[in-house]
Amino acid sequence: MRHGVSFAAVLTVALGTAVSAAAQAGRSQAPLVIREQGSFFVGGRTIHTVAVSGTPGGLLGTGNEGSITVDQMYVQYQIPEGGERGGHVPVVMLHGCCLSGKTYETTPDGRMGWDEYFVRKGRAVYLPDQVSRARSGFDATTINMVRLGTLPASALPNIFTFSHEDAWTLFRFGPSFGTPFSDEQFPVNAADEFGKQVIPDLNALLPVANPTYNNLSALAIRLKGAILMGHSESGFFPEEAALIEPTGIRGVVSIEGSCDRSFAQQPPPTPQEIAMLAKIPILVIFGDHIADSPFWPPLLSGCQQFVQQVNAAGGDATMLHLPAAGLFGNSHMLMQDKNNLQVADLILAWIERHVEGGH
Amino acid sequence: MRHGVSFAAVLTVALGTAVSAAAQAGRSQAPLVIREQGSFFVGGRTIHTVAVSGTPGGLLGTGNEGSITVDQMYVQYQIPEGGERGGHVPVVMLHGCCLSGKTYETTPDGRMGWDEYFVRKGRAVYLPDQVSRARSGFDATTINMVRLGTLPASALPNIFTFSHEDAWTLFRFGPSFGTPFSDEQFPVNAADEFGKQVIPDLNALLPVANPTYNNLSALAIRLKGAILMGHSESGFFPEEAALIEPTGIRGVVSIEGSCDRSFAQQPPPTPQEIAMLAKIPILVIFGDHIADSPFWPPLLSGCQQFVQQVNAAGGDATMLHLPAAGLFGNSHMLMQDKNNLQVADLILAWIERHVEGGH
């Protein structure tokens, strides 16, 4: 570990300050005092579309061509009162496949999400919807052109989502649909509620150079410094953003993503890229029951290898495999798990030590 | 740089978004004190889909069938500290066509939206995304089946949005694209920024009995009383919700919608329906320059007729045509206009008098 300090020591401090679930479950906490909040867009470009709608002549019968905006990224934010005390750095929390900014909000069983918790811990929090998802919209031109008959059905994007059944096993709620692991941290009684936030993913519309990478870089610059957090499909997006332009990226948190770029079906990071990433503190996080799923072990080992490579290149990368740190039963959706605030405290402790300078 | 994306491209994006950041820097109001905030879903039903993705065998190759959730409605909310003082009633703010909850958030030129303003005025505010929009997701089954070849292209939903050009004239930013009305209240210098929040509308996937109606009714019951506000495409949704189940609907605000149901291409309200709606206080709002657009006069007169019918049936309906009330230049997006807080004050005054009992 960098600086010769063991993560176990940091963990001891972090767990000692963890907020108990009971204290916050009853929502009897102090009011949340916000200095500023709102929403805006990052990126976006104007294109000329020949299919504003799927109807000849357009929605109003006045024509079906015009300018629309694509590749934009919606961002919501909250800045706590007094947040800059202690040199706190803003945190951007980006969701993964088939999900939206909701990932980091109130959990399916009604507990506080990381968005509010990090704000209560004095951090400005920025919550995007990925390009081509949710409030960021998507380019419907291709779908409309197929409807209009000017493109074949094979031109349609491969839209995907997760079924309830696949989510249960893939996200490691349990070994088979309806059966949880005995120590499962995901609130499986609210699995149906979780299903409501699983939505279609149209990333297949996007180029390999996903515009979200560029938008993340630009956001970090706009914020004059930020920690970028990604999850699953977007787990390695912070690194991709840093490889485009590291200015403003003060730290990276990669949660259960593909550090070898296997999700994006691209080659793993080159030595030159590793050298660039070695300039930014990186925290990689995985939950529990990895070995119980055929899907996850290669991703965990791929990220372990990535962490080793970054450190060998003189970087500051930390692998936080939760069961090795004494937290058991965490699912893929560890920001929604029953012990989500304990996990958040570990991240905050890492941020304080590795990004904010040990305050 | 990876992906061939230059720093210049990133910088362009970063600077392009710095305009609203500067506008936000002038925020000098008191902190916002929140008692509770979060998000949840209303409604939703589980269906069996035969096309979880557009690829045979599914995303993971383990099959393409399974259970998904559709018809759910995402809702964000904030409850101010001390909000119940004065008998304040929660307000649900629903967006219209081709837009999302962003409608009521920070304006395109960086000013406070109604969501924060109403919270500062002591109201709990609830911000949904319509069913089949944004964070509420949509049912991609049909699109996927067309891609898979099991349905013809003609089965595709008619997805629509507004081009920048059509939005300018239809939303009454000005008489022709790029030219504002001389007294235009919409921040036309931020028209490009507005374009980023215009997204595809998949309401064509939904039945005539739009699930959003039912979800609005359910939300008002869950909140033990709420004012439902709709806009444009959803302008008459509060009335539709009240006609399904009025319990909990303490008041209705219909902004520039079709009171004769012309948007939904359905027959206008019957005398029986008018009699039911006469039990709930209703505020109908239209902006300026109605006569300058061929599209809007029938909608204004249709709503004037509706207000007369409700009052003739013993109800409490008010038509607020802003120029008649001394506010000139308002566009279709009056919640984002430069005088949006003045308009909000008129709504709050109506709420205090007609819903909250004259406090």
Quick recap:
Chain A is an alpha/beta fold.
Topology:
Two copies of one chain form a homodimer.
Chain A: H1 7-16, H2 21-25, E1 32-49, E2 66-80, E3 91-93, H3 114-120, E4 125-128, H4 141-148, H5 164-170, H6 191-195, H7 211-222, E5 226-231, H8 237-244, E6 249-255, H9 271-277, E7 282-286, H10 297-312, E8 317-321, H11 340-354
Parallel strand pairs in A: 3-4, 3-5, 5-6, 6-7, 7-8
Antiparallel strand pairs in A: 1-2, 2-4
Helix pairs in contact in A: 1-11, 7-8
Describe the structure.
The structure is a homodimer of 359-residue chains. By secondary structure, chain A is of the alpha/beta class. Helices cover 28% and strands 18% of the residues of chain A. The first copy, chain A, is built from 11 helices and 8 strands. In chain A, strand 7, helix 10 and strand 8 (317-321) form a beta-alpha-beta unit. The relative contact order of chain A is 0.15. Strand 1 (32-49) of chain A pairs antiparallel with strand 1 (32-49) of chain B.
Class inferred from helices and paired strands of chain A:
alpha/beta
Number of helices of chain A: 11
How large, in whole angstroms, is the Cα Rg of chain A? 21 Å
Low-confidence stretches of chain A: 1-26
Helical residues, percent of chain A: 25-40%
For this entry, what is the oligomeric state of its chains? homodimer
Give the topology string of chain A: H per helix, E per strand: HHEEEHEHHHHEHEHEHEH
Biggest sheet statistics of chain A: 8 strands, mixed
The total strand number of chain A stands at: 8
What value does the average pLDDT of chain A take? 92
